[in-house]
Amino acid sequence: MDMTVNSLSKGTGIHGRNFAFCPTLASYDLDILIVECKGCSRFFAACCVHKSFGGVLTGRPCKTCHTFQLVFTDGACSNNGHVDAKSGLGFTIGRNEEYKWSLPVDKVMDGDHPRTSQRAELLAAIEGLKKLDKRHTDCLDACEANDGYQYTNHPDEIPHLIVVTDSEYVTKGMSEWVPEWRAHGWRNKQGKRPGNVDLFKKLDRTITNLEHAGIVVGLWHVPRESNRVADSLAKDAAHGLNAYIE
Predict the structure, then answer these.
(1) Which GO terms describe its biological process (predicted)?
(2) Which of 67, 59, 66, 109 is nearest to 237 (CA)?
């Protein structure tokens, strides 16, 4: 099965590793496209097939489509570009505190590489995706335990994990640059090793492994103002504050 092009709800799906909505939904505001399930407090993308929406359309109908699961990710770096720079990661998959993580970047996570904003953004996407993968079945259990709250899925029930980021560097890198680099032995057009290629390869490998397990993965680029929770968590981690580590 080709996981790089997967259309479900009339065009909504993963196209070249980018998540995109069908033309009808693409015209909606983001508060309608991001849905919070009342049963499990997790975040999902809107689905026109099941009329599952957020914002002013929440609750029509009562069933939330759980097909497109979201993890909002962000990376932050204090004193970016300096030897004393410190980086942090933030990601969230739901409204509750148990669904929020704030992780400082240390040698265990990223060795002796310089702490930069770009590396932090890539690390956040990698670690956030791993966290979402570990928790992607929890939402169904939570809904079933919550007085039989009704949720719905697409017939094939293939998990779709969506990494939400405000970093064009991450989304453009994975959808446009990585295929070219891979085709040329992980070199750019000038024949040189691209910056942060180790993390691009790691994210590419993480996505590919999930695809081989039958899980569809995509990246969704959103404006910074739509990623404030992850941004705050990342900044806290970069400054050594309120680390949420599981």
Answers:
(1) DNA replication, removal of RNA primer
(2) 109
